[in-house]
Every structure is written in C-alpha cells, then in structure tokens.
Specification:
It is a single chain. This protein is an alpha/beta fold and 235 residues long. It is built from 5 helices and 12 strands. It has a single domain, classed as BirA Bifunctional Protein, domain 2 (2-Layer Sandwich). The two termini are 18 Å apart.
Length: 235
C-alpha cells in the first residue's frame, strides 16, 4: 500500500503555497529522472503528498483560460483585498478564499495508475462521497470537470467544487477547491471556470449552516485513502 504524506498548511498566501507545491513537484520529477540511470535496486522511491490549505482572496487563471473572465480591474482587486495570478494548471479562472478547502495532491501516478482521466474522476468521487455524508447529492456535468449539484436540471445546476491539475512525467500538482463556508459574493467578479450558465454554491449554503472544516478535512482524507488505496500519514 502506498503512503501519502498529509500536510495542513492552514491559511497561506497563494504564491507561497504554489512555491511549496513546485518544490515538492520538482523534487519528485528530479528523483524520477535520476532513477533512469540507476539499477532497479539503487533507485530511490518517490514520495506522495496531499496538501490542504485555505488562501486569502485570490483569483487564478489556468493556462487555457480567458483573462476577460476576470470582470474587475486591478484597482478593484486592491479594493477587494484580492490578488490575481496566471498559473500553470489546466482550466479557466476560479476564486480561492477563506472558508474554501483547497487540496493539492502531489502524487507520482506511477505509484498508483498512469491515467489522468481516472485521476480526475477519483478526485471528483472523493468530493461526491464526502458531500453524501452531509446529505448533499452531488455528481458530474458531462464535459465539465468538477463536482456539481442538480446538474440534471440546467436552471438549478450549481458548482460546489472546482478542479484544475498539472501533470508532468506522471507527477501531479494543483488540484481541487471545495466551497465549504466561503463567501460566494467573490465569485460574482469572474465567469467561474469560464462557464456562464451555471451558478456556484457551497456546503454552508446548501445546509443553511456553516460546516466544521476540520471534520470536513477528515472526511476528504478518508475517501481519498479509500479511492487511491493508500495510507494517509499526518506530517
């Protein structure tokens, strides 16, 4: 059984968390490259990580996104105490802020399975199973990555979890953002994920009350471990 090191970074500046991801990602890729020149019994086993954090108000645009989906100016960003980054994940624009659980798995998929489609479906399934524990029925929207509620009813469909990943040499980074107790008003400043015809929601909005975030993290970790058949170790 694979081991995955879990680190809760707490509330962390987006760039600082991004740099930390890049460090772990680069170390893993370098290890894999170096292993190519070694005999099998000399090779170093790569490590796997699952990072959780929350960010101060920030908008991030993926490498296939449209800058016009940010609907406010640089001056308005400052007024809203928010920052903006164009980053190296897939997907369009999204928002991160306090009350949102952001997960960054840094996995060597050679330790699990080499299938990005399956990897994304597993992350979605982790969230779907977690939401079910709160009595929230969620699912997928055809052709749109992430987790949704009432997607079979177009006028009611709303997104509760966004996803965007990067992978190189089967090593992953970036991940998912699950709206727990987040201020949804900040999504009004963007076209979330470039999707114009569906709303955004949160666990708190669906339940009518705030959710215990520590409990939520434990549920996410449990379902992650089940799906990836791994042992999640607290670092």
């Amino acid at each position: 059984m694979q081991q995955v090191h879990f680190i809760d970074l707490g509330l962390m500046d987006y760039k600082k968390a991004w740099d930390f991801q890049e460090k772990l990602f680069s170390e893993t890729v370098t290890t894999k490259v170096n292993n190519r020149s070694l005999l099998e019994n000399e090779q170093i086993k790569t490590s796997n990580y699952l990072l959780f954090c929350e960010h101060p108000h920030v908008y991030t645009l993926g490498n296939t996104g449209n800058k016009q989906h940010l609907l406010i100016s640089e001056k308005q960003l400052v007024e809203k105490n928010a920052t903006y980054y164009k980053i190296n994940r897939g997907g369009d624009i999204t928002y991160h802020g306090p009350g949102q659980i952001v997960g960054y798995p840094i996995l060597d998929l050679d330790n699990f399975f080499t299938d990005i489609h399956k990897y994304l479906r597993f992350l979605e399934e982790m969230v779907i199973r977690t939401l079910a524990e709160y009595g929230i029925t969620a699912g997928r929207s055809k052709g749109e990555t992430g987790v949704w509620i009432d997607v079979e009813h177009p006028l009611k469909a709303r997104k509760i979890c966004a996803m965007g990943v990067r992978a190189s040499r089967w090593v992953t980074m970036h991940g998912f953002a699950l709206n727990a107790n987040v201020n949804l008003d900040y999504f009004g400043n963007i076209v979330p994920c470039g999707i114009v015809d569906k709303a955004v929601t949160s666990i708190a909005k669906e339940l009518g009350a705030e959710v215990d975030e520590m409990e939520l993290k434990e549920k996410l970790k449990k379902h992650f471990a089940e799906l990836f058949v791994c042992e999640v170790i607290n670092d």
